[in-house]
Amino acid sequence: MTDTELRGSILGTRVRRTEDPRLLTGAGRYVDDLHLPGKLHAVFARSEVAHATLGTVHVDDARDVPGVVAVFTSADLGVAPHHGFVTVHPDFARPPLADGVVRFVGEAIAMVVAETVAAAADGAAAVWADYETLPVLVDPEESLADGAPVVFPEHGSNEAIVDTDAHTVELDGDGVTVVRGRYVNQRMAVVSMEPNACAAVPGPDGELTFYASTQMPHGLVPQLAGALGLERDKIHVIAPQVGGGFGGKAGIGAEYSSVAAAARHLGRPVTWTPTRSDDLVSLPHSRGQVQYAELGVRADGTFTGLRVRLVGDGGAYPGIGSFLPAGTKRMSNGTYRFPAIQFDVAVGVTNTTPMGAYRGAGRPEATALIERLVDHAALVLGIDPIELRRRNLLTDDMFPFTTLTGVTYDTGAYALPLETAAAVVGYDELRREQAARRERGDRVVLGIGVAAYVEITAGGGASEFGAVDVDEHGDAVVRAGTFSHGQGHQTAFAMIVSDQTGIPVERIRLVDGDTRLVPTGGGTGGSRSLQLGGSAVHRATEALVDKARRLAAHLLEADVADIVVDRAAGTVGVAGVPASALTWGDLAQRAADDPDAVDH
Q: What pTM was computed for the model?
């Protein structure tokens, strides 16, 4: 008999998401829905030029606008420059409000705080500044060219990150065709349904409660503490419902620390709900790569090697976005057997919106690069695109496989999905139809695209927090260090707990997004939540079951080895003696009455 009866497993069954009714009926509570008595509203005045020496920021007209309570410039706030999510180099620290120099269109130069959003917007519109324009760089290749003007003179160059392989890969050889391409993975803006809102509420003894539309609540604590000069235990971060993140809400924005500082200065709650236009310049952009790629292919279609020179756009204040080309490099092996890879990376500072993460964060750029090259090679060699992939895919017997860029693929059967997809769509028939249309000269032609990729998951640290508690009513509470903003954690984690305990999914509640209720956490991003957060919840549930079995053995005067969890019934008792079973509520009540009983 196993410790946990196998009957009634919920995993693999279709379960309606328990969090959806609240959202679909408009009952979700977002930052902008918070009722904060006495709250003020912030709006930012932003630079209209991409690069300039910033002279006087004129705020007198803004202060005269009815309803305006305060106008802050960099000198007024006393907030330390910071690096957001990660630090590339100390020289690239960003002041929350521009201080002496503006480096991209949309950089905040002043913050207006007012009784209403309209008054704050009117005040921001009344702010103007003296600019002495400087040379502008918007192209990372131009940024890295010899003689280019330097965006951060103290840094001495526009190089944010340079990663050059020590080895050289030669692709040319007898019977080898080398295909080459210059691919632009264009810059894009990260835009979610809910803007990047926040609200700061000052408390007694220098405490601060900070509400944020964020993916990673716990990560904001040290970032805010560093910017404001506070001890971490003074800061309480709460993420209410969040309307999407996609990587753009993974770290602290410059506006967050300004709003927090204003609340502390004024002694009143201050909220900021950016407009869509605000988000387009205040949330990070992503991608922004120029890829020079070469692929060597023998006459039989097998690859001889891959060589890439990648130029990345670091934006005006290089941060996490400057590290993402390294992710492209790591995943450049893709699904294929490359005998050799050379991959050189250089990221340049530009006078553009700072760069950050967006869905896949480096991996999709690698896939786009590789698959374009493979299609190019198929065209040049006259080999069917699927056939060329067949000849180069990693085979099942090669796993686990460590790539030439140091990534370990634990398992894989890469040919299976390729062949399945080809069969499902009727690939051979589609090719015949394509050829027939071309031969007839049809005006409507048929395009067929093929791509293969491998995903990287469980990023953002190798551990996660998970805890499970049961109360005297038999209801369970899961606390997780991940944060759900559309991913369905409430249902998924409840299924994990229910599978081991038999407690119904609808009686399991998830607590996340609160740094006081959950002591630590890595948040959600990098496809990490189920792998790391789910594993943490699973282990916590195992510990709960173990404790319940020991308590039941003590109460029933039985051997622990004879105690099982009947998942179908949701009880714990002696195997084969259902009349002896105790409910989870019974066990929780007995543990509360006698905390030492579980240790017997």
A: 0.94
